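Dear H.,

Thanks for agreeing to be a second pair of eyes. The structure we're designing against is below in token form, covering all 439 positions.
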């Protein structure tokens, strides 16, 4: 075994939560799957029909890919996994366990599983989903587009009568953005099919557009030339572009309604660290002279000078948005401290696996931990292969247990690419901290 550290990583992150306003015990049902006990028809405990009865699904290995298969089979776009009987415990049989979908299936029953009725679970492990029920269509970026909602079994548009920035902000916040600007007169093109909402009037406290005042689903006096749209302000105002991993790239900021680059005049490691920490990484190293390629469009920042206490690059001293004397060959970039490390081993190639998320390091539970998972970690750190070590073989860590039920495929390049429970969703103790020995 050789002990050489060459770390690469990727960081995954973004969850979208949308809510439809319906009855307290909404049920959405397809041919062999239904959602039960959610607060709206786009969410609930997953139940499947097999062997002439309905039953629940155990949350072992349950992830967003499995949730998306469920949601798409019910007519939604995508889904987020819920575990630990998030929507309450079901009753009767537990019909599926160890579900593992690839994403190409048209029904949950097509996904790999341990067999109908074969499980080692209790109803406190019943799986659930939250499905995307509002979407933006035909924009040039994910933060803009024509607003479409899912109701009465299909997608439809929203009329722009009374449409304003408060309504747009409710839409945008339900999709994970910070705020929104209203677009009218089919700004993003005319939709087709039903116009499902008209005369929408939100007060800003709603979590879904369908909670806002309106005359009722399908009641309108509009044509598609009045389809409403939104332009959402990104929650993150800084992004990294054209790096080989998500912890590096050309720095771009969002201002004046669009993304632009940063000039490398005075660009240093303090500035880079502010960028990296705002994105959930550790410290950063500055890259200059368009190290990650030249951007296009506006150069929005120049002469940036951070003192290190800022939470966003836009808080740092600068001469003003759009004020610069640069060209794109001076575009600034950063390389951020990776988010996987090995701790308490006898050399750099072994140790307890720790991951960096939301400003802090945490451990990985050894449930389902195997040599494939270990090899993905080791290869992301520059090694060839790895052997899994469980039961806190390199000592117990401290702080949060951030990942549990990790299941990597041999094609994954980083532990955050692997299937797992949601960040922080675990049923473990530090006596179960996972480790690796790399070779």
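And this is the sequence the design step returned. I haven't edited it by hand at all.
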């Amino acid at each position: 075994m050789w002990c050489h550290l060459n770390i690469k990583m990727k960081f995954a992150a973004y969850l979208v939560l949308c809510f439809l306003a319906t009855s307290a015990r909404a049920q959405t049902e397809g041919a062999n799957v239904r959602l039960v006990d959610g607060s709206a028809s786009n969410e609930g405990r997953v139940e499947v029909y097999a062997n002439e009865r309905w039953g629940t699904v155990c949350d072992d290995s349950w992830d967003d890919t499995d949730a998306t298969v469920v949601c798409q089979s019910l007519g939604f776009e995508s889904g987020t996994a819920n575990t630990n009987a998030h929507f309450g415990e079901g009753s009767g049989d537990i019909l599926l366990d160890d579900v593992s979908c690839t994403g190409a299936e048209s029904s949950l029953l097509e996904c790999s599983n341990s067999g109908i009725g074969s499980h080692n679970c209790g109803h406190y492990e019943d799986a659930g989903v939250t499905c995307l029920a509002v979407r933006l269509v035909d924009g040039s970026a994910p933060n803009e587009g024509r607003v479409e909602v899912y109701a009465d079994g299909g997608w439809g548009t929203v009329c722009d009568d009374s449409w304003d920035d408060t309504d747009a902000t409710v839409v945008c916040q339900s999709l994970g953005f910070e705020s929104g600007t209203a677009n009218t007169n089919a700004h993003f093109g005319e939709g087709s099919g039903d116009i499902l909402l008209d005369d929408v009037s939100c007060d800003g406290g709603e979590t879904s557009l369908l909670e806002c005042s309106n005359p009722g689903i399908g009641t309108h006096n509009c044509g598609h030339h009045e389809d409403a749209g939104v332009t959402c302000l990104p929650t993150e105002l800084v992004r990294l572009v054209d790096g080989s991993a998500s912890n590096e790239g050309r720095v771009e900021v969002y201002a004046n309604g669009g993304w632009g680059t940063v000039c490398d005049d005075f660009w240093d490691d303090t500035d880079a660290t502010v960028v990296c920490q705002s994105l959930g990484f550790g410290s950063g190293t500055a890259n200059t002279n368009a190290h990650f390629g030249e951007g296009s469009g506006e150069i929005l920042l120049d002469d940036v000078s951070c003192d290190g206490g800022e939470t966003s690059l836009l808080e740092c001293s600068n001469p003003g948005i759009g004020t610069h004397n640069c060209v794109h060959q001076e575009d600034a970039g950063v390389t951020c401290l990776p988010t996987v490390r090995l701790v308490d081993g006898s050399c750099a190639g072994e140790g307890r696996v720790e991951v960096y998320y939301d400003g802090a390091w945490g451990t990985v539970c050894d449930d389902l931990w195997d040599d494939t998972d270990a090899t993905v970690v080791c290869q992301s750190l520059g090694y060839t292969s790895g052997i899994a070590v469980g039961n806190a073989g390199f000592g117990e860590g401290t702080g949060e247990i951030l990942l549990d039920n990790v299941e990597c495929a041999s094609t994954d390049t980083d532990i955050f690419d692997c299937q797992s429970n949601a960040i922080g969703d675990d049923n473990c103790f530090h006596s179960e901290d996972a480790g690796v020995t790399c070779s």
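Two observations from my side: The chain has four helices and 25 strands. Residues 134-233 form a domain with the Mac-2 Binding Protein fold (CATH 3.10.250.10).

Warmly,
E.
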